[in-house]
C-alpha cells in the first residue's frame, strides 16, 4: 500500500493537464500520480497515455461530476492498486509548489484525529491573493452559508502570512483535498447526488460528526486557476451551489428543533440574492436559484433518510460559526476574517 496517492480527476481538461501535470510530477515526492478521466470527449486520454507513461490512468465509464467521479476513481485505486493511506485530490487546474506535500502529511501523521486537510489556496492569476475555492480553510455559518479565512464573498485578502499557522477549520477545499483513505471509504465517500460543488463540505461535516477534525496547513501553498470545468458565470454553477447548500444543511444539521426555521430564513435570503442577480440582468441565475429550491423539495424523502442515518451515527457536534455571515458582511461591513465576532473559537474544540 502506498502512503499517498495523488489523484487528478479530469473532464475535457487536456489543456490543464498539459500545463499543470508536469509540475505535479516534478513535485510528487515519489508518490504515484493518477489521472482519472471522466469519459472526456477531447483527446485527454490519448494525450496522457502518450505523454506521461508513468501516470496511472483510470478511464471512468461516465462523467459523474467531482463527487461521483472521485468515488469511482478512489474505489478503483483501492481494489486494483492496493489503495493508499492518504489521498490528495488536486483539481486539474492546480499548480503545486515545491514541498507542498510533506507539511500536510506530517500534520496528518502527528494527529490521527485529523481526517482531512488542505494547503493555502492562492489565485493563479493574482498570485499574492487568496483564491475563492477554499483560501486558507473554510467555515459554515448557522444558516449553512460558507466562507473562508482569506475570502469572504467578494473580498479576497492578500496573503501577508497571516494564515501561515496550522489550525482546525470546518471544511477543507475540494480544490486540493488531503483525506485519510480509510475514513473516506468508511463514510461512503462523497455524496454522489451533489455531482459537483460543496460535496467536500458535506464530507467534512460528516467526518466531524464522527469525532474527527479538519485542518488547514499554512506551510503548504498551491495556486488555483478556478472555474476550469464550470465557470463561475455559468448558471449551472449557481444551481449546484444553492441546491447542494440546502442538501448539506438538511442532512447534517443537528436535531435541535430549529431546522425548518432556518430553511424559512434561507428562503428569504436566497430570494434577496435572486433580486441582486436580477438587478444586474442575470435572470438565468434567478431561474437557477428557483430550480435549486424545487430540486431540494423533490429530494426531501431521500435527504430525510440520510439525515436519520447520520443522526444515529453521530458521536460529536461540528462547531458552526454562531452568527450570520450574510449579516456580518453586508450589514455590519465585516469584510475580513479577523473582524468577525467569536471567530477565533470556531472549530477549535
Automatic annotation (TrEMBL):
| Gene Ontology molecular-function annotations | glycosyltransferase activity
Alphabetic keyword roster: Glycosyltransferase, Transferase
Instruction: Give the matching InterPro entries.
Output: Glyco_trans_2-like (IPR001173), Nucleotide-diphossugar_trans (IPR029044)
Pfam assignment, any one: Glycos_transf_2
Keyword tRNA-binding applies: no
**Which residue intervals define the domain Glycosyltransferase 2-like in the entry?**
6-166
State the family named in the UniProt similarity comment for this chain: Belongs to the glycosyltransferase 2 family.
Protein name as catalogued: Glycosyltransferase family 2 protein
